[in-house]
Amino acid sequence: MASRGPDETRRLFGRRRRAARRHTVVRVLLASAVVAVLLAGAWVVAFSSLLAADDVEITGTDQLTKTEVEATADVPIGRPLARIDLDAIEERVRSLPLVESVEASRSWPGTVRLRVTERTAVAWAEIDGEIRGIDRFGASFRRFDEPPALTQIRVDTRDPRDRQQAFEGLGAVVATLSSSAPDLLAAIAYGEAQTQDSLTFELADGRSIRWGSAEDSARKIEVVSALLGSVDAAEYDVSAPEQPTTRE
Question: Model-level pTM greater than 0.85?
Fold first, then answer.
């Protein structure tokens, strides 16, 4: 095979250099085009009115009106959806006493969705002369004109911390009873406590259950249900469910 002469070799190298430069130029142009597209897309998403908030969709309300939730949420209509502070919206909506939780999300191209979970009363208590609904977290969140068909709970302490913790414990146990042992709940006349560890339930027939804290309530329900059906006593203590006791 004949070897290339110097001129032919130089021409070959020249063609290769020009092809490499063309490939480089093409790659640079393609990269620039991609960057331009990305920048344009980012501008449209973050700054353009094309993807601005123009609607608020609210679900989960029953006691609250959608108008009330929307006014409290104060969604900045007209602001690009990507730049709306959803955490701030959630915080504002959670300030409503009837709201247990809320989840805010974006729905492109222009909707802010609010999924609200309202508080539900599981018990009632007389607080400062008013009949108040108490939820499963012990929150007093609404007023009733008369006692509702729910379990009454009583908290007898002036210490604000003990008072709130006692309401939390009673609310948690009543909610558990409502879902897993409604017959037992129906037999309870009222629940009372002074601290989170002194929960007691008085039955309509005069017997009482010393519950202790709200911890391990599922096990306590099993134990006290068995005792109520097999042991005749005035008081059933399941505060330590592995070692329950009774008193005549």
Answer: no
The span from the CA of 101 to the CA of 32, in Å, is: 46
Alpha-carbon distance values, 22 to 8, 13, 36 (Å): 21, 14, 21
Separation CA 185–CA 58 (nearest Å): 34
SS3 216: coil
How do beta strands 235-237 and 208-212 pair? Answer: parallel
Neighbours of 240 (CB within 10 A): 13
Residue 2: count of CB within 10 angstroms of its CB: 4
Cα–chain center distance at 197: 26
The one-character DSSP state at 80 is B
What's the chain's length in residues? 248
| Cα–Cα nearest to 119, from 171, 189, 67, 66 | 171
Angle at 109 between CA 53 and CA 51, to 5 degrees: 60
- Confidence (pLDDT) at 13: 62
* Contact (Cβ atoms closer than 8 angstroms) between residue 238 and residue 184: no
Quickly tell me which residue has 């009583």 as its tokens: 154
* Nearest one of 168, 179, 244, 248 to 213, comparing CA atoms: 168
DSSP 3-state of 121: coil
For residue 200, report the phi and psi dihedrals to the nearest 5 degrees. -135, 145
Ranges of the chain with pLDDT below 70 = 1-50
Q: Which residues pair with 58 in a beta bridge?
A: 114
> Measured between alpha carbons, how far apart are the two ends of the chain, in Å?
116
φ/ψ bin of 206: left (φ > 0), alpha (ψ from -120 to 50), beta (otherwise): left
